[in-house]
């Protein structure tokens, strides 16, 4: 329940009973009421904030010219509702705009305007204390604390909760344990933006040199590097139930279901305290792109290594001599290229259309390629990883 201060001025004193009936008829409780005549000193103190205004002396003369009624009104939203019942300050304007208002009915002009009401909760508190120093404002404080708490929640957790609930409801299928999903979402997205690592996607065909360049970035910038392929291979080696299925998909160059890769990546990202994270070889399918952004994090840009198949094939066959990978052989390589063109290139096109792609010519030597790559990261200040330069350079971000 809120309280406000009301005053029936000398020009409307003869209508005071009628005005009080209107007040009570509008669901206000009159918690305190006192008729009195203000001394000039008390009037000057009450209207102190207007002391330098031209109308001040006229106002003091008017307000001390007869009896006034000072009241404390009680109601939900008392301050605003009482102002609304009063109508515009100038009774002439009130007659035009709010003919039923108290000022329209009982006032004459801007000075003789029948009644006064506090214009804010803090003014109400000050004015009530002025006329009724003993009045207990605990209830009003409780209300304003409630308002403050509401505002605090609106400014802090409500936006994140809204986003989380909207995201959750859009998922198909929806999580079987919504509260657990929500808690994971909040632990990933709910902290201050500055504490979350910046995410960089690193994409390119098989053998384009993603891993090689990521190693160099990690060395210079101290980022974390998570390769989707490595995480999947680790899952195979762990002997988990889904490991055998993943092994078969890798041999065939097929893309493993996004939920599996996404949950491995999420776990890896959650476990890092680095300020920058390179996600290598993900998203490799359009639905993975959307899922990552809605469920894990937004990202800075896609570093795309552009390399002809012939070059990639030579590199992979060379790598296959020592890598021990089940897919670095001619037959698997052919399948991987096909998957890349049909399934992964559309991801690049999708991000290109959003101007998120930094395209790198990956045919040069590793060191030459890195000279261009590193320029995309030096613009992030080392302290907070906020880009300090926003324009892209022509060698690294030209659209196809
Ligand atoms: N710019 C390059 N020039 C020549 N060989 C490269 C270059 N970048 C990487 N390689 C070699 O090619 C193979 C594939 O590189 P890698 O970084 O593993 O590719 P990806 O992670 O894209 O599959 C590796 O044997 C690597 O040493
Ligand atoms: N997002 C991803 C990344 C890799 N993979 C699988 O892991 C294999 C190896 O990926 P990788 O990134 O280690 O290797 P490259 O093919 O890039 O050389 C792919 O051919 C896919 O079978 C996947 O299914 N989904």
UniProtKB/TrEMBL annotation:
Ranges of residues in domain Nucleoside diphosphate kinase-like: 1-139
Protein name listed in UniProt: UMP-CMP kinase
HAMAP family, A to Z: Adenylate_kinase_Adk, Adenylate_kinase_UMP_CMP_kin
Cofactors, names only: Mg(2+)
Principal location: other
Keyword Zinc: no
Keyword Transcription regulation: no
Chain segments annotated as transmembrane: none
Subcellular location(s) of the protein: Cell projection, Cilium; Cytoplasm; Nucleus
Signal peptide extent: none
Region (LID): 318-328
SUPFAM superfamilies (UniProt xref): Nucleoside diphosphate kinase, NDK (SSF54919), P-loop containing nucleoside triphosphate hydrolases (SSF52540)
Catalytic activity, EC: 2.7.4.14
The reaction(s) this protein catalyses: dCMP + ATP = dCDP + ADP; UMP + ATP = UDP + ADP; CMP + ATP = CDP + ADP
Molecular-function GO term, any one: hydrolase activity
Binding site for ATP: 9, 55, 83, 89, 103, 113, 207-212, 319, 364
Keywords attached to this entry: ATP-binding, Cell projection, Cytoplasm, Hydrolase, Kinase, Nucleotide metabolism, Nucleotide-binding, Nucleus, Pyrimidine biosynthesis, Transferase
Cofactor binding mode and count: Binds 1 Mg(2+) ion per monomer.
């Amino acid at each position: 329940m809120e309280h406000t201060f009301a005053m029936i001025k000398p020009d409307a004193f003869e209508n005071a009973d009628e005005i009080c009936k209107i007040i009570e008829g509008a669901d206000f409780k009159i918690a305190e009421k006192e008729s009195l005549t203000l001394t000039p000193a008390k009037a000057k103190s009450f209207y102190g904030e207007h002391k330098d205004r031209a109308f001040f002396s006229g106002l003091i003369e008017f307000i001390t010219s007869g009896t006034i009624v000072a009241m404390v009104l009680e109601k939900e939203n008392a301050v605003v509702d009482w102002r609304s019942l009063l109508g515009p300050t100038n009774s002439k304007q009130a007659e035009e705009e709010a003919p039923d208002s108290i000022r329209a009915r009982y006032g004459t002009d801007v000075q003789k305007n029948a009644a006064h009401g506090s214009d804010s909760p803090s003014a109400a508190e000050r004015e009530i204390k002025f006329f009724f120093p003993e009045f207990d404002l605990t209830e009003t404080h409780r209300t304003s604390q409630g308002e403050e708490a509401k505002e605090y929640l609106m400014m802090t957790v409500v936006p994140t909760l809204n986003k989380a609930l909207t995201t959750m409801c859009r998922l198909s299928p929806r999580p079987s344990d919504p509260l657990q999903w929500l808690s994971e979402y909040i632990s990933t997205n709910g902290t201050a933006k500055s504490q979350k690592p910046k995410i960089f996607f690193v994409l390119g065909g098989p053998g384009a040199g993603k891993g090689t360049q990521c190693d160099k970035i990690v060395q210079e910038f101290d980022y974390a590097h998570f390769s989707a392929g490595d995480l999947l291979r680790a899952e195979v080696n762990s002997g988990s139930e889904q490991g055998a299925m993943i092994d078969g998909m890798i041999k065939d160059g097929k893309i493993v279901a996004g939920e599996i890769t996404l949950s491995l990546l999420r776990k890896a990202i959650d476990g890092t305290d680095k300020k920058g994270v390179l996600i290598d070889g993900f998203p490799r399918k359009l639905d993975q792109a959307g899922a990552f952004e809605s469920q894990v994090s937004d990202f800075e840009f896609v570093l795309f290594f552009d390399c002809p198949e012939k070059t990639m094939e030579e590199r992979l066959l060379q790598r296959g001599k020592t890598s021990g990978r089940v897919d670095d052989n001619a037959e698997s390589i052919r399948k991987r290229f096909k998957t890349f063109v049909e399934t992964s290139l559309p991801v690049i096109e999708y991000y290109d259309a959003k101007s998120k792609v930094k395209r790198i010519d990956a045919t040069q030597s590793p060191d030459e390629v890195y000279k261009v790559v590193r320029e995309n990261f030096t613009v992030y200040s080392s302290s907070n990883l906020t880009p300090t330069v926003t324009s892209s350079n022509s060698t690294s971000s030209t659209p196809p």
